[in-house]
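Trying the structure run again after the queue cleared.
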Amino acid sequence: MAGNKKVPRIIVATKAGFCFGVRRAVRLVIDGIERNKKMCTLGSLIHNPQVVRNLAERGVLIVDSVDDVPDGYTVVIRSHGVTFEELSKIKERNLDYIDATCPFVKRAQDIVYKLRKKNYGILIVGDREHPEVKALLSYAGENGTVYPDLPENVEKVGVVVQTTQTLENFKRVVEDLKEKLGSISELRIFNTICKSTEERQREVIELSRISDVVIVVGGKNSANTRRLFDIAKSMGVDAYHIETDEDIDFSWFSDKEVIAVTAGASTPDWLIGVVVDRIKSMTGGIIDGRV
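Done. C-alpha cells:
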C-alpha cells in the first residue's frame, strides 16, 4: 500500500565539496578582492561554472593568455597550473601575480622538471587536452609525451600521472608500461594522484554499494567529477552527473530507498546543500548525515 512506502534516506559523502587546493585557490582570489586588487585569472580558476560566475560578478576577469592581462591587474594562476612558457611570460612582463596552482599539481610539475634536467624521457598519464596535463608537458619539454604514446630514443623513463586520474587506471597503465618498456635501463614511477582524489573515489565506491541511486554534483568540465560519475556507473548503480539542482529529475528517485549525493573537488558546499534540499523536498527523504 502507498501508505507503507518507505521514506528514502539521503546520504551525503564526507569528502564532497572543495578540496584543499581548490579552497586555497578561491581563498587567494577572495583575499585579493578584499584588498581592492583588480584581479584576473589565466583561464578558469577552477572547473565549476557557478563559482567562476560568482567571482566574475565580483569583478574578476578571465583572460585567455598572458598578453590579454590588462595593465594594473594582478593575474592569478589557476589551480590546474599554467605552462612553463606562460609563467615565464608573466615574469618577463613583470606582472603582479598570485600562484594558486594546487600544491599537488605543483609537486608533479617539480618532479617532471627534475626528470627533464636528468635527461629522462617523461611519460604523463592523463587527459591530453586537460590544462594540468598541458602544463606538465611544457615542463617536460621535448622529453615529454602523453600515454599511450611512448618516449622514443631514451634509456631512462619517468612516469607521472594527472592528479585526478583513478588509481586503478594508473595501475593498469603501469603494468602495460613495464611490458612495453622492459628494454630500457631505468623506469621510475611517481604516483602523483592527490590524496583527496583517491579518498573521494574510494568513498563513491562504498556509496555505490549501499545506495540505489548516486547523484554526482559538479561542473561538466570537471575531470575529477566525471570520474566519480564513471566509477558509480561502473558499479552498476543508477548514477547521474548534475551541475545544479535544476538538472534533477524526480523520476530518478521512484521506489529508491537510499539516495547518495557526492560532489567533485571544485563544487562548493552551498551548491551541494541546495541539491540535497531539493532532493529532500522532492522525495520527503530524511538526510542521514554524511558517511
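The chain has three domains: 2-17+195-290, 20-102, 104-189. Worth checking whether this holds up in the mutant runs.
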